[in-house]
Every structure is written in structure tokens, then in C-alpha cells.
Amino acid sequence: MTGEHRLARGGRVDRARPLRFTFDGHAYEGCQGDTLASALLANGVHLVGRSFKYHRPRGFLAAGAEEPNALCTVARDRARTEPNLRMTQVELYEGLVASSQNSWPARGFDLGAVNDLLSPLLGAGFYYKTFMGPRFVKGTTLWAKLFEPVIRRAAGLGVPPKEADPDHYANRFAHCDVLVVGGGAAGLAAALAAARAGARTILCDEGAEMGGALLCEPDATVDGMPAAAWVAATLAELARRGATLLPRTQGFGYYNHNFVALAQRLTDHLPHVPAGAPRERLWQVRAKRVVLATGAAERPLVFPDNDRPGVMLADAARAYLQRYGVKPGTQALVVTAHDAAYRTALALARAGVKIARIVDTRPRPAGPGLEAARAAGLPVTVGGTVVGTTGSLRVSGAMVAQASGTGATDFETVPCDLLLMSGGFTPAVHLFSQSRGKLRFDAETQRYLPGDPAQAQASVGACAGSWGLAAALDEGSAAGAAAAGSGAGRSHAVTGDHAGEGGGILGALPHGRDPARVKAFVDFQNDVTAKDIKLAVREGFRSIEHVKRYTTTGMATDQGKTSNMNSLAIAAGALGRTLPEVGLTTFRQPYTPVTFGTFAGAARDDLFDPVRRTPIHDLAAAQGARFEDVGQWKRAWYFPEAGEDLHAAVAREVRATRAVAGIFDASTLGKIEVVGPDAAEFLNRLYTNAWTKLAPGRCRYGLMLDEPGFVMDDGVVGRLGPDRFHVTTTTGGAPRVLNHMEDYLQTEFPELKVWLTSVTEQWAVIAVQGPRARDIVAPLVEGIDLSAQAFPHMAIREGRICGVPTRLFRVSFTGELGFEVNVPADYAAAVWQALWERTAALGGTAYGTEAMHVMRAEKGYVIVGQETDGTTTPDDLGLGGMVAMSKPDFVGKRSLARPDLVAPGRKQLVGLAIEGRTVLEEGAQITPTADPPVGTHAIGHVTSAYWSPTAGTPIALALVENGRARTGETVFVPMPGGAIAARVVGPVFHDPEGKRLNG
Amino acid sequence: MTMAARALPPGAGALVSVALVPPATRLSFRGGPDAAEACAAAFGCDLPRRACRAAATEARAALWLGPDEWLLLAPEAETAALVAAIGAGLAAVPHALVDVSHRQVGFAIAGTQAATLLNTGCPLDLDPAAFPVGMCTRTVLAKCDVALWRRGVDLFRLEVNRSFADYVAGYLRVAERGLG
Amino acid sequence: MLLIPCPFCGPRPELEFRNAGHAHVTRNPAVDDPAWAETLFFRDNPKGIMAERWRHVSGCGRFFNVLRDTVSDAILASYKAGEPRPDVPLPGPEGEAPRIGAGDEVAP
């Protein structure tokens, strides 16, 4: 027997397949088809956890996704430990290991329950009042040292695993004509109608089994079949018609333009997970039409001590009984404001559960449910209420009073071990609301219902406010057919329906007991009581959004599925306003929690972001290079020899390059080929320089501004022919520059006949720099005269190197004689190897980005993004000479005349000479005096700072107000260890005459 | 060619396989309709005027990638000859022809699960009705820009910039595990 | 995720696009400093229909314009750069897909 409270027959569980599992270390047995919740109830376990704030004993409130109390941790191993799962959705498997949360040392004896005694301190807004707010009770050392740490430790959810998640998570983009969310009666009928009309259909449902409420309708028939058989036949037909059926799949987010996110659980229900199988799959669905059939959730009633284990929603009890074959108690008291609870009471009675009382809070209920209950001899109290419960770890009695004469003493305690409540049903309009559909308040039924859809979408069945199987099926069928563009749906023959049921109440039941001494829970997961909401209103909160945040009602992981309407009603009552006047809080994604892994998918570890490597990467690595990240690129940073650290390696690389030569992988440089008869004119308009007169075969340093007049990129541009330029950009700026160029070409200068092609990855670039550079390159080159006269500084030639095509630049970013060898990328490794062998033979070096930075700083060459910050003009950098103001127009030209850009006192690029050996901090502020008082305006900042192996001193570049006029002055860089004096000098520290370039 | 891309597995069986395509001539051709027409004559394969369509002969293909942009594909050895021929044929017509043979790496993705594998990271509708054989476009695959060309119901060609080839190969390898 | 109708390629997911700010900002360097500052830095932030620029950057690469209702995110039209802003009414409650810019057209 799979639990002493299991019925001998009935339900959808397979008693022939028992499953062993443990909960908090105790061994139990359930059976195939159980959830953890139904299996525990079959074993008589109601106490399954402690509440968030007060550590009150809690049991199962619901049977589905809306469960606020029964959270657990399921552990497969140390890494596969998932906290905060709703036990009502955890499918049982052989060997499942689950534990309760938020209770220590045990569920039955929880030290944290001291919080319940401290509860006068823990009411609405306690976080703000104690941990963050003014001195409320916080001032005492007792509070600070004892209570606060205890509360902080005791309150909270489950503990996430500390190890990396070993599982794989899949992703799928999908498209369909019709997406149906919810596989109950309405959803199945909608999907079937859509699929029959030939529409590409996706149907998802959060449960392990499709069917929704039809799985708990043993007495109903659809189209002459038992309800469950109709479900099976429908699913079979959907599969045959090629519909995508996704059980265990939560539609959790509805976004723009009918884009809906679904989370599919793939392996959590399996006893043995196949190696490498994805655990969950994120479906990103774009649907032409969406049908929402998300059902409705029953509301609890709000009365004192309505949270004891054994207090449960009536419909949940019926699900446990009829779907799982479990008796959730032996003696039940039902308190209801809705007719559906009678159906539950009758079913329980038939199963042998004693119905101690049915208390209907309505003064004049009527209908077949009530009549059937009376006919069955069940005791009914009309116009009654429950003003409290007894028991500790399980409910033992209900305090029943007449609603008209409520008072603390005026009640009768009715013994029961199961207290079922129904406040009516709240349509699950979450996804509709996320789709930006406006909800409308139906005053007659006191419900928010979907109004006009904002997207191509329809809501059907209980989520649209309908009631009963036939209504759900017919609405679903009509919506599915309409979504597929195929006219009307069909109507279904249903017996055993319950169409006429109705009722419901919002807010708290009156009780008349001392409000200071009782707790009537509204939000079970965040332990928010009716009193808390009223307190928030008394303390001045008027907006429902503020009341929500102050009390935290609806802000737990269940997002208030069972509590929001009651808390709204209580707030409305306290504010003296109607519900529509109070308004609704926002329904946010996700509908139920989604694991981080599902969102991350493959984007983790090596695939978190593309790692881009140059064609020379492997060779550089073999030469011992250390790499640095530059955007997505890995760039060789420095090439340490044995025993060298960064500084030693860089000093050696710089000295060797300046003395002999060095080779450097510059492949990441952005490259754009600008081709067309108007190429020169286009560059005239995009760069500050003039290009028309640049002869083919020559290069020019180009400066690019954004429209506000600030430097956005720079690079050498070589002219290959009258209508062809090879433009280089900074490594990081390449996509931005191409986008900027395309923008102006397409939208401002569309008349120009010119086209832009990114060739960043076509050409690998090897810089050969140093006095012996020509000797290294020359023997490998064919067809290019490398002599200084034939191939001067700032020239470009096409020819061959090592037998492959090259675009050879004579350029320098080090201040030395230099070449940049461009070769098609597949050939780069071979060419690097040949150049390296010659370089090494001559005593040269390979150098990395750090040495490159040092050498360019020694020459005062700027790096865009380091010497510039988006507010730097050419003149600020001392590059005013690059600006051809005689051109009629170029991007940024107009702005260079803006008042702020010509105002005196702008920061200008200077060098800083430092005595001593301390390298300044990049970004450090610069002040005119050594010890300025607090609040002193900084006159500039350090942009680059290095130890210069060439100068044998620290060097720095800086932007300083009126910097060029301050040449020779001493300024100060305040640091924690005291201000460092620096002398303002020109920015070029090495070979200011540039003789070495022209060797 | 990058290391990880070289080390691609042969594919997890009949349902889908991922393989590198051999080196090829790739030319980016830019220009107006007259240029496209002249180019087709020199290239020996139509340049489709219809958006997102490819034309192919046995040895050549032209993929529409933008309203004035085509990617021309041809055997590896023909680069110089094609550049010369198209340049000669279009001497009087404004256009841009740029050799990008080494810029990109091509993958062939084949098998009944090919579209499903791509849809793990590509947000386009790859149903044959929406993305028929002969359709091509630039799009995204996970965090990478790609050009995608459907050569058969169960055969796609993916062109990616070479520095992303390792990422794409690694991504497809992981994504294949998620097909089950 | 928006479904953006590219005037050349048809409706495509937002992942393929990059927003490029307001449309129809006229670049006229001949204006005085205050007017130039307006051009550079001042934008309205309409509630309702907004003309904005997008680039199909992971697609055909074209910049184009879109009329989007900033309240509902419904896209009412898409049109090529340089074309005038079409006159369209706000859409009905069904949030129908845009009728302008259905894509799949012949290259110029």
C-alpha cells in the first residue's frame, strides 16, 4: 500500500508501481503518478515546513503551481540540489530525496518559531523599520546583537547549492500559427480545433499530464467518453496531426508581438537522468495567435489561524482525492463562499471522509450543490464563519460562529483534522496582463477578467471567467478555430458538468477577536496578515503599489497567486475605496520561478561570450605569450622569458625593439575597405583630414569625430588606388566605426557611389618595428622596393611576402622604422613564423600589447578611449593640425565651433615628468597644490602612466586644463600615500624630432 | 583555420552532422542593379534580385545579403581569375569587389535535425514554408552574426567570421546535446 | 522581443536589429548654435507614435525607419531611410501586424 491514506481505487496513480522516497530523512512510499505532495498526504504527512517570517508550522494549501507554503529542496547530489520547489509540482520518482526548508533543527521543533513570539516587532514594514529605517527598536544593543541576527538567519528560503550547476540547459526558438497555453479542457479543445484546421500548433501545460481539471472529473463525460478518455483521444489526435505537445512546460512570460517564453522540465521527474541530457529547455515562441487557457486558482479565506497544517483549499482536496486517490483527512470541516466546495464535500463523504460541517459564509446560498449536500445528510451552517482554529502541528478544530454575531467567545469549536476553504476562484490572468491587455473588473462576480486583448490573442475557459466543462470546451474550440482562421468551433456534449456553480468573497472574514492576538494570513508565503495591510494603510500608504512593497504582500516567489485579490480587497476596505479605484499591482514575469540555468542556456563557461583569437594566437601561445582580454579578443599581452614578470618582460621587449626590432600581432585592428568612385569624397566627409590629394600608394593618419565634435576613432588609411582605400580602425572601435560610416553613407550621403566592406578578419597584421625592421622583412618580400626613397614612411604597397599576397604598410606606432605586414588570414601563421625566425636571428623580440602601449606612450601617440573619453576634441589632443577646416563639411565640423568647444580652459594633452620611481595611477586626479582642501576642483587627470624603459623614469600622459600653457609648471597627483609631484612637459618623451621613423 | 573548428566531431549520427566546408573563394560584391547584371555575366551565375535568395550553378553561388550586396562563392583556386574577370567586365560600372575569402569559415549542417539544431540559437522560422530551399540571409546564431543559406530541406550552409568559428563549433556541439 | 518589419527582408526578430534613435532629425550644419544644440542633444520622448531609426545590423545592414506606438509597442509602419513619414492611425485593439513594410521585395 502506498500510504495509509491512499484509497483502494480511483485516481490516476499506478498503485502497482510503488516508489520509495525520503522526506527529511524519513522513508515513505508513494506511487507512479504522485506528486511529492500527494505522496506525503497519502502517508498522513501534513506538516511540511515552516513559514518565512514567523516560522509557523505549515502544510499544503493547494495542489498546483499556486502553492505558497509547501516548498522543499530536492537533492540528487551536492551540485544537483534545487531549493524552493513547490512540492505540489515535484513529481515522485524512485529514490527521491526531499527536505523541508526554513526549519531548524526540525519541522516539529523549530527554534525560529521564536519569531512568532516576537511578532509584535515583525509587522508590516518591519524590514524598513528595523534594518534600514530610523531608530525604532533598533537602538538597543540587545536588538542589534541578538534579535536582528537571529531573525536574519531564520527568515529566508532554501539554500542554493554552492557547486557549479553540472546540468545542460537547452534553448529552442519556435514559430507557430497557434500557441495554446494550458492543457485543460479549454486548451485541449482550442489546440484540437486549430490543428484540425491545419494550423501549426503548440500546446503547453505546466503539469506532467495534460488535461487539467478533466483529470479530476471521474464522473464527467465528453462526447460520450469519460473525461480522461477524451483527454487521451484528443492528445493522440493532436500528435497525429503534428502538433507540438509540451507537458511539464510552464508558459511563464508573454512579451511583445506575441513572443511567449516557456520553460520545459525534461529530466527532473526521472529517477536516473541520462548522461548529458538537457535538464530544462527554454522555448522562445513567436506565435501568430495565442490562446490562453490558464484556468483559475481558488482563493483561501482569511480568518485567524487559517494557516495550520490541514487547512487547505477545497478544490485542492478534491484533486488529491480524485486525481491521486488520497484522503487528505478523516474528518473535514468545509468553509466556503462558493458552490464548488459542495462538490468536494460530497466527493470526500463518498470516499469515507466524515464531513463535520459545511459552513457557508453566504447568508442565502442556493443551488444543486447545497441541495445535494443536504440530501446526503451533510450538516450545513448557512451564514456562518470561522473565527479561528485549534491545534499546533495539525489543525484539530475550527471555531465556527454565526457571521452576524461574531465575537471571540461566541463560537463553537468543531473538531476536524482537515479544514477546507473556498473563497471563490481567481482567473489566472497573469499572461494576459503581461501581454499588456487591460483587465476589467466585473462588479457582479467581483473578479478581474481579461478585457480587449492587446495582441493577437484570446483568453478562454476559467481564465476568462467562464465556469464549467462545456463552456470551457466550446470556448476553446471556437478560439482555436478562429485562431487558425477557420470559422466556428464545435460544441461538445458534456455530462456531469457543474455549469451553474458560483459565488466568492474577497477580503477577510469578520472575526471580532482581539486583533493584537490573532493572525489571519493573506499572503502565506511572505507571512502577511490582514492586520499588516490595515496597518500599512493607517501608516499612510495609499497607493496599492506602496502597500504591496511595504507589507511585501504578493512579493514572494508565488507572486501572490492565492493572496493578491484578498489583499487588494482588504486594502480597499481600509482605504474606503472600491477595488477598481485601488487598482491592480503589476503581473510580472515569470509566472513561476525559472532556474537561472534555463535563462543562461549554453551561455556559460567557454560559451558565455565568443572568445575571438587571431590566426597567430596558437603560435604566440607556443612562444609563451600571456594574453589579455580586449573586448572579445584574446591579445598577446607580453612574452615572458624564464623568470620574467610583466614588468621585466615589457622592459626587455621595449629595449629589444628599439635596439633591434620586434614583431607584434596587430591582427585585431579594424579594417574597412572603402571602394567606389566617391571613396575619397566619402572619407573627406567622415574624417577631419583631406583625402582628395592623397596619392595612391600613400597613407595618412585619419581622425574621426562624432557629430558633437569629439574624437571617436583614429587609424591609418592607405590609398590603394583612385577609388580604393584600406582604412584601419582601433580594435575596439571596428564595429562602431563601420556602423557610423554606414549610417552617414545610407542616410546623409546616399548620393555617393561608394561601398564599405569589413576586412578585419580577411587580413592578419604583423607589425615589424625597429631599426632592423627592413632587414627582417626585405628578404621575404617580392615585388616591392623597400628602400627609403621608394617606400617612405606612411606608404602602402601591394606585392608578395613568403609567396603569398600582402598589403605592406610602412607605418609606425612605436616611433621606430616600421612595417605592418597584412596577409590573408590563412597564411598568417606561416608568415609570422618566417618573420619571427629572422627577428630572433637578429636578436629581436616578439612583443605584446603592454610593450606596444609603453612605446606609443613614449612617443606621445594617443589611444582613443584612453587619452579620450568622448568629450575630447582634436585640439585638446594637440591634433588640431589634422583638422582640414577648409573642407566644406565633415562629420563633427559644425560642432568644433560650438561655444563649449572653443571656450578657454579646456583640458589639453600633456606629458608628466616624475622624479623618483613611482608610476602614477591611471585615472588619478591632478591638483595645483600638494595638499588641497577637500572640495578642491581637480585640474585634470592622468590618462596613461608607465615605467619607460627607454627614459629610465616613469612617464605619464594627462589631460590638464590649459595644459600646454602650463608647460614647466609642477602639478600634484594626490594619492593615499601622499601627493606625487609632476612637471608638465610635452607629450613626446622619445625622439621628438622623429628621426628614427625615417630610417 | 582555428583549432577547435578543426577538431569538429563527425556528427552525432544520421540526424544531424556539422562539418567544415573546404576553403573557397568569397567575394563581396556591392553595386546597383546594372552592376549586378554585369557582374552576373562575368561571374557566370545570376545575382538574385529578390531579397534573401541565392542563385547557384554547379561551382558558383551568389547570395543576396542586402539590396546592393551579394556574397559570391566559387572554388578556392579561382579568386584571382574571378577578380580580374569581374573587374574587367565592370570597368565602366561603379561597384565594389572585395576579396573576403579568408574572412569567413563555412560550416555545412546536414540531417533531418539540421533546422532544429540551428533553431537552438537562431531566432528565424526555419520551417521550409517560411525559409525555403534557396533562401539565404544574415542572422544571428546564439551570440554570433552568421550568414545562413538553405541548400536543401535538410542541408544548410553557415558562414561565420573566422574568429567566431571556434565559438560556433563549440556552440553547435553543446546545442546538439539539447536536441533530445 | 519585438518583431520588426525590415523594408527589405520582411519581419525579423529584434535580435537582428540595433536601434539608432529618433528618425527625421535634420542635419543642417548651417544653423546657429542653439539650433545645432537642438539637433545634437534634444529629443522628445513621445507617449504614442514615435518615428525611430533601426538598423538591420545582423541582416541586410540597412538603416530604416519605423513608426512605433510607445505605449503598446505596436509597429505601425516601416519605411526606407529618406522616405517621408507615412500618415497612419493608431491600430485597433487586436494589435494587427503592420501592413506597411511587409518585406520580400525586389532589390532596387
UniProtKB/TrEMBL annotation, chain A:
GCVT N-terminal domain boundaries: 616-887
A GO biological-process term: tetrahydrofolate metabolic process
FAD/NAD(P)-binding domain sequence ranges: 177-434
Domain SoxA A3 span(s) in chain numbering: 519-601
SUPFAM superfamilies: Aminomethyltransferase beta-barrel domain (SSF101790), FAD/NAD(P)-binding domain (SSF51905), Folate-binding domain (SSF103025)
Pfam families: Fer2_4, GCV_T, GCV_T_C, Pyr_redox_2, SO_alpha_A3
Molecular-function annotations in GO: sarcosine oxidase activity
Keywords: Oxidoreductase
Residue ranges of the TM segments: none
Domain of life, per lineage: Bacteria
Domain Aminomethyltransferase C-terminal: from-to ranges: 907-991
Sections of the chain in a coiled coil: none
PANTHER family in the cross-refs: AMINOMETHYLTRANSFERASE, AMINOMETHYLTRANSFERASE, MITOCHONDRIAL
NCBIfam families given in the database record: soxA
Family to which this protein belongs: Belongs to the GcvT family.
Protein name: Sarcosine oxidase subunit alpha family protein
Organism per entry: Lichenibacterium ramalinae
Organism ancestry: Bacteria, Pseudomonadati, Pseudomonadota, Alphaproteobacteria, Hyphomicrobiales
TrEMBL record, chain C:
A Gene Ontology molecular function term of the record: sarcosine oxidase activity
Region described as Disordered: 81-108
Pfam families referenced in this protein's UniProt entry, alphabetically: SoxD
InterPro entries (UniProt xref): SoxD, SoxD_sf
Protein name stated in the entry: Sarcosine oxidase subunit delta
GO biological process: tetrahydrofolate metabolic process
Organism per entry: Lichenibacterium ramalinae
